[in-house]
Amino acid sequence: MSTTEPPSPFHVAVIGLGSMGMGAARSCLRAGLATYGIDVRQEALDALSQAGATAVGTDGRAFASRLDAVLLLPVNAAQCRSALFGPLGIAPHLRPGTPVMVSATQSAADACRLNDALKALDLPMLDAPVSGGSIRAAEGRITVMASGASSTLARLRPLLDAIAARVFEIGPDIGQGSTVKIIHQLLAGVHIAAAAESMALASRAGIPLQTLYDVVTSAAGNSWMFENRMPHVLKGDYTPHSSVDIFVKDLGLVLDTGQALKFPTPIAALAHSLFLNASNAGYGQQDDSAVIRNYAGIQLPGDDPDDVTGGEP
Amino acid sequence: MSTTEPPSPFHVAVIGLGSMGMGAARSCLRAGLATYGIDVRQEALDALSQAGATAVGTDGRAFASRLDAVLLLPVNAAQCRSALFGPLGIAPHLRPGTPVMVSATQSAADACRLNDALKALDLPMLDAPVSGGSIRAAEGRITVMASGASSTLARLRPLLDAIAARVFEIGPDIGQGSTVKIIHQLLAGVHIAAAAESMALASRAGIPLQTLYDVVTSAAGNSWMFENRMPHVLKGDYTPHSSVDIFVKDLGLVLDTGQALKFPTPIAALAHSLFLNASNAGYGQQDDSAVIRNYAGIQLPGDDPDDVTGGEP
C-alpha cells in the first residue's frame, strides 16, 4: 500500500537578507524549497515572511535542527563567524553533517578558519562566493565559485539549482573559491576606478559624457562595470547598489592576498587608494561609482554648477 | 600597377595598409568603390592589387587628382604628416575640396596641426580615429569616432558606409574625435594591464588559469580586453595582434592629454609604466598581453618549467 505524499521538501536557511541574500531566498521559495530567513533587520524578516518563508527570526536556533542546508550571505568574515558561533549562532544546533555554503567575500585564510570551526562540529563547508548582483540574485541566476569536497557540493545541489545559473567547481580545497572571488574583485574594482577616471577626463576635456558612454560600450574599451555603473554617473544618482566601502574592503582583501603570496598587485593597490580616499571624503556609503568624486575641477551631472570642487558631500 | 577602372563614381585612397588599413581597403573594394592603396611595404601593395585595387604605389601623387576621398590609417601623427606633406606626400596633388579622413591615434594638438596644414590647401579634414580590431576592419564593421564639419562627414559617406558599423559624431571641432579615442585607449590599456595582473596573481595562487578565465568572462569582472586578450596568455602565444609598444604610445597620449588639461590620470600613468617596463624587458613587439611578463615568480603556459623568471625573451 502506497500513500501519495509529496516528496519531503528541502529545508534551507539563508543568513543575511541583504540585496543578494534576499534575492537568493526568494529564488529558493520559487523553487519550492522550505525556506528560512535569519537577519538582524526586522523589515527584511517581515518581507521574506510575507513572501512565504517557513520561518524567520533574528535567532535561528529554534529551527536549526530541521535544516538540510545553510546559505551564508552576509558582508564579511566577522558576520559569518557571529552568525555561526556567536551568542545566537546556529552552528552548534545544526544536525551533524548539515552542509554550510559560505558565500561572503572573505580571505582564503578566514575561509579556512571557518572550515576548521565547522569541521569540529562535523559540519561540511562549501567555500562558495558568488557574483552577479541583486537583479540576477532575484532571478536565481547568480554565478558561484565553489571549492570544497564534491560530496558537499552534491548535498547542496537543490539549493544551487534554485539560486545559480552557473556553478564553477574551482577545486577541492577550502580557500580556492574565496581566492577566485578576490581575484575577480580585483578586476571589478579596477574597472570601476578606471571607468571613473575615463569619465572624469572626458568631462575635463569637454566631451559629452553620454557620447563617451555610447562609444566605449560599442568598442573594445568596454567592461561589464563601465557599462553597468557609469549610467549612475550620467544620472548623477549615487544611490548605492554596491558601495564605495565594499571595494575598500574587497580591494583590501586583494592586497592581503598578494601579501600572503608575496606577490605585487600594483593596479589593485592604486585602485584601493582611490576608493579609500573617496570613503574618507564622505562617499563610503554611496554607490561605488562615486569614486569619481575624487576628481576636483570638473562638472558632473547633478552637480551644483557654481561648485567646481567635485561635489563635496 | 593596374590601370583598369571599375565604373564607380567614388575614388578613395587608403594610406597605411597595416591590419586595420588593409581591412578597410578590402571593405572599400567589396562595397564597389574604386580603391587605391599607398604603403611603404611592397607586399601589402601586391596583396591589395591582387584583391582588385584600381592602383597602388609607394607614391600616390600620380593618381591623387582622381581621388574623391583619402583615408589615412597609419600608426601615428608623424606618419600622417609624412604621407600628406613629405617628399612623396599627396596633399599638394589632391583636388581642392577633397575630404581627408584621418584615423591614426594621435593627440588632439597633432590633429589640429594637421588640420591647419590641410586647410591651407583647401582640403577639409575629418578627425576620425577608429576602434574594432583587424577582424572587424576586414568585415567593414569598425567603430568611427568622428569630429569636424558635418559637410565633410557627408562627403565621406560612401567611404564610411563601406568600412564602418557605427559612426559617432562627437562634435564639430577637430581634436574632439582624437580625444575620445585617447580616452577609449585609457580604458583599453588599463583593462589589459589589469587582466594581466589578475592572471598573474591567479598563477601565483595556484588557481587554474582557464578556470579563472571561465569565471571572469561569465561574471561582473569581465572586460572586452580580458575576454579578447587572455586567450593569448592561456595559449602562451604572444604573436602580436596589437603590440606592447602600441600601448606605450597610446597611454603616453593619455598622459599628454591629462598634462595639457592639467588633470590627473593615475591609473593610466601606472599602466603606462607597466607597458614601458615590458617594452624595456624586450617584449615591445610582442602582443600587448605580454605585459604579464612583468611578473616574476610565476609559471605561465608556454614557459620553460625550469625557468621561474617570467620567461625572459
Structural class of chain A: alpha/beta
Q: How would you sum up the major sheet of chain A?
A: 6 strands, parallel
Question: What is the name of the CATH topology of the largest domain in chain A?
Answer: Rossmann fold
Within the largest sheet of chain A, what's the order of strands? 3-2-1-4-5-6
Biggest interface found: A-B, 65 and 65 residues
Describe this structure in words.
- Two copies of one chain form a homodimer.
- With 313 residues, chain A is of the alpha/beta class.
- Chain A has helices at 19-30, 42-50, 77-85, 108-119, 133-138, 150-155, 157-163, 176-205, 209-217, 224-235, 244-260, 266-283; strands at residues 11-15, 34-38, 55-57, 69-72, 100-102, 125-127, 130-131, 142-147, 164-171.
- In chain A, the strands form two sheets. Chain A has a six-stranded parallel β-sheet with strand order 3-2-1-4-5-6, sandwiched between helices.
- In chain A, helix 2 links the parallel strand 2 (34-38) and strand 3 (55-57).
- In chain A, helix 8 packs across helix 10 and helix 8 packs across helix 11 (244-260).
- Chains A and B meet through strand 9, helix 8, helix 9, helix 10 and helix 11 of A and strand 9, helix 8, helix 9, helix 10 and helix 11 of B.
Task: Give the topology, please.
Two copies of one chain form a homodimer.
Chain A lengths: L10 E5 L3 H12 L3 E5 L3 H9 L4 E3 L11 E4 L4 H9 L14 E3 L5 H12 L5 E3 L2 E2 L1 H6 L3 E6 L2 H6 L1 H7 E8 L4 H30 L3 H9 L6 H12 L8 H17 L5 H18 L30
Parallel strand pairs in A: 1-2, 1-4, 2-3, 4-5, 5-6, 8-9
Antiparallel strand pairs in A: 7-8
Helix pairs in contact in A: 8-10, 8-11, 8-12, 9-10, 11-12
